[in-house]
Design a protein that fits this description.
This protein is about 50% helix and about 0% strand. The protein has 15 helices and 2 strands. The chain binds protoporphyrin IX containing FE. Protoporphyrin IX containing FE binds near residues 56, 165 and 200.
Length: about 325
């Protein structure tokens, strides 16, 4: 009898939390508990299968969440195609011929619309898929806060303006993240997403043939690394050839990205900026050293920062749940 009362109280409490979350317009980890209890399981199974078939999908899904959240917030605006007044973000500089995984999201949405029509937003699908993608490569797991609505618009202009460029200086990166309500610790831990995935030669080629003044080649090891990169990415052509962001364990979500940085094996200028020697900069490189030595700390900070990023500009009252992630209803 006593056990029954505790259970009943717990149910009541959970339901109250869900109601409160809905009323407040804030996200909640219980959001689909009543509305569509199998939502997360459907997404998890899709990610598992898709990553099994093509391990590159994990990095694509993770990056999709970042590029969604940094443009008008995590509202699935990134998924909208060009259509009737919508100028798709997919064609903006940082995304064109680079951002992938859209068909994977389509397939998840299709399955979710069969299971729970009109309930699970595309923005939530991206957020859950990003978490499951990290887990699929050996990274940490976390509870995803849910209840985002999908936007009714996209912004090609903001996609060009708000997503940081790979040749950004540290100052620019810090300012960009601050604009999104993120701190230095978020910049450093989220950059650790580059422990998986690949970059096209075009995104870093200028470093190899025309280094900026702030990018001195420091030592023999970096020199050798750059030689290797030059052999993959010659000065002319091969712009779309792909190179792993983490040269050591490109398909494993671990802390070797930071170890690479300390060895001078950073692929993008933006990565290399985390170990420059001047010093706000001290805070930044100090975090890099800590993550390089302590994967648990990296995972802990990464999870906190992903949750923070997943909260940027979310729509909980305005917006809709799209039936097809590529078009507004
Ligand atoms: C700090 C500023 C950042 C810059 C300047 C940046 C830039 C880039 C660039 C240029 C690429 C390669 C794109 C290409 O050449 O096709 C890339 C790949 C990637 N980025 Fe970032 N990024 C940043 C932060 C982040 C964050 C915060 C995340 C996620 C939390 C992330 C996740 C990824 C992933 C997973 C890939 C590999 C994608 C794939 O293999 O398809 N990046 N990034």
């Amino acid at each position: 009898m006593e056990r029954f009362s505790v259970l009943f109280f717990l149910l009541l409490f959970t339901s109250a939390c869900v109601q409160k979350a809905k009323a407040d317009g804030i996200l909640s980890t219980y959001y689909y508990q009543e509305l569509c209890p199998i939502a997360e399981e459907i997404i998890r199974q899709h990610v598992e299968t898709e990553v099994y078939q093509d391990p590159n999908v994990a990095a694509q899904l993770l990056r999709l969440h970042f590029h969604d959240c940094f443009v008008m917030g995590c509202d699935a605006s990134i998924l909208l195609d060009d259509f009737e007044g919508i100028e798709s973000e997919k064609n903006a500089g940082p995304n064109l011929n680079s951002l992938r995984g859209f068909e994977v999201i389509d397939r998840m949405k299709y399955a979710l619309e069969i299971a729970c029509p009109g309930i699970v937003s595309c923005a939530d699908i991206i957020a859950i898929a990003a978490r499951d993608a990290v887990v699929s490569r050996g990274g940490p797991s976390w509870e995803v806060f849910l209840g985002r609505k999908d936007s009714l618009k996209a912004s090609f202009y903001e996609a060009n303006k708000r997503i940081p460029a790979p040749n950004s200086t540290l100052e620019i990166l810090i300012a960009n993240f601050e604009d999104h309500g993120l701190e230095i610790v978020d910049l450093v831990s989220l950059s650790g997403a580059h422990t998986i995935g690949r970059s096209r030669c075009t995104s870093f080629k200028q470093r190899l043939y025309n280094p900026q003044p702030f990018e001195e080649v420091w030592d023999v090891r970096q020199h050798e690394y750059f030689q290797l990169l030059r052999s993959i990415c010659p000065e002319e052509g091969h712009d779309n050839d792909l190179v792993p962001l983490d040269i050591k364990t490109p398909r494993r979500f671990d802390n070797l990205y930071y170890v690479n940085l300390l060895r001078g094996h950073s692929l993008l200028t933006s990565d290399s900026q985390l170990v420059t020697e001047d010093t706000v900069e001290y805070i930044v490189s100090n975090l890099v050293w800590q993550y390089a030595f302590d994967q648990r700390l990296f995972f802990e900070h990464f999870v906190n920062s992903m949750i923070k990023m997943g909260n940027i500009g979310v729509l909980t009252v305005e917006g809709e749940v799209r039936h097809n992630c590529r078009y507004i209803n």
